[in-house]
Amino acid sequence: MLKIRPLLLPTVLLAACSLQPPADTPLPAAPQAWNNAPTGAGAPASATTAAAQPPAEDWWRALHDPAIDALVPASLQSSASLAQALARVDEARANVAVARAGAAPQAALKTAASRGTSTAFLPPVLMDQASAELDLSWEIDLFGRLRHGTAAAQAQLAAVDADASLARLALAGQVADTVLLRRACVLTLARQRETLQSSETTLSLTRIKQSAGFSAPLEVARSRTSVGEAREAVAATAGECRRYAEILAALAGVDARTVQEALADDGAEAPPDLPAVPEVAPELPATVLARHPSLISAQRSADAAFEQVGQARAARLPSVNLAAVLAAGWIQVATIDQGINSWSLAPSLSLPVYDGGAGAARVAAARARYAAALAGLQQTLRDTVRDVELALVDGDTARRRQATAEETLAAASDLFAASRSAQQAGRLSLFDLEIARSSLLTAQTKLIAARRDTARGWVALVKATGNAAGAEMGR
Predict the structure, then answer these.
(1) Least CB-packed of 39, 59, 185, 399 within 10 Å?
(2) Among the listed residues 369, 378, 360, 377, the one whose alpha carbon sits nearest the alpha carbon of residue 306
(3) What is the residue-wise DSSP string for 20-60?
(4) What is the pTM of this model?
(5) Which helix (H) or strand (E) holds 83?
(6) What value, to the nearest 5°, has the Cα angle with vertex 310 and ends 305 and 314?
(7) Tens digit of each residue's pLDDT (9 = 90 or more) over 90-135
(8) Architecture of domain 106-140+318-351
């Protein structure tokens, strides 16, 4: 590095120039409309729809489920992964402050004091010394190296801030989804227990009839089989429900008792029903994608990479530093008491002459990172569009299943009522009654599953759209 220190550098006073404009990475082209949007959707939400939309920060309250309302805030408060995301935001904010400070004038104060003997006099005498020095320096950002560095840090802050929003959304969605699974599981368990109770009653009656000679051993064997199958189903479903409670306890960072109190479904005669979901259609793709946290993060990461290209290019060009020193000293030897004051101004110009190609390699590396960031942005857009479309498909499928399951349940209920009446009148065997009861349980279970998946589909749509089903993430 060649350093030139002239007394006057008129060129230093020239206005600073930049090698490239500020970063402004656009989103790739978005679809014109959602392929699987409900009829009439894909346009901006109407006033009626907007009023039904969940709030930006606590969108889950639109489900009106007390357990979700209690466990989601607890999970957001105790989540280690969310705490890590927020810590990265704090770190990025500090990096912005560091980058800004690098462009500001720097000052350092040095002080010293000493006492000793001096042999300049005979006999030797004591000598006291004290000094203070203020060093001032300032790099003039001729080609924008410091500005690009600050801009890159600010873009990275925006990226990690969006990542934190996405982590918060994902965690809240996971808790809400698990509560929905638990609700459906408990409802299914209640229906299975009812079936088990009926099967056990049927088995008792069949054994009484057999002892009186009115029932064949085959009917008893069939009833015993039905009871065994019902007990196995109850045991499996009960275990599945307990698993969901443990998952919720881990997510919320609370003990199992607190989760059970929030769920309020353990041993309840009438377990809480699945929540109804609001009718909310996603807005235009361009609107949704422009405020999606994952795309904001990808955009700002690309901006940061672009600014780093300018930073690397500017680092290969001359840099100008202004330095000044203000010094004050005091010395006392024998009867001599002397103060010394001085100042100096030393502008310098640093001009890279030869670095073995390191500077060019850094520029090439920065450009490669920018190209990778653009490719990542393109892939993020595709993934986001795919997730929204899949959520729309799953939600529509669940709603259609629910409508069909309601019709099937009505038919199965009529069939079971008619079969029970026929069996009591002696026109139908207990085996045929058990078949009708099994059909009723299947229909009930399918309706619960369809309603569960409808609610889960709404949660998935909120997550896939980056909470565009509500207001804009509090921004």
Answers:
(1) 39
(2) 369
(3) SPPP-PPPPPPPSS-TTPPTT-SSPPPHHHHHHSPPSS-GG
(4) 0.83
(5) helix 80-102
(6) 145
(7) 999 999 999 999 989 999 999 999 888 877 667 787 888 899 999 9
(8) Single Sheet (2.20)
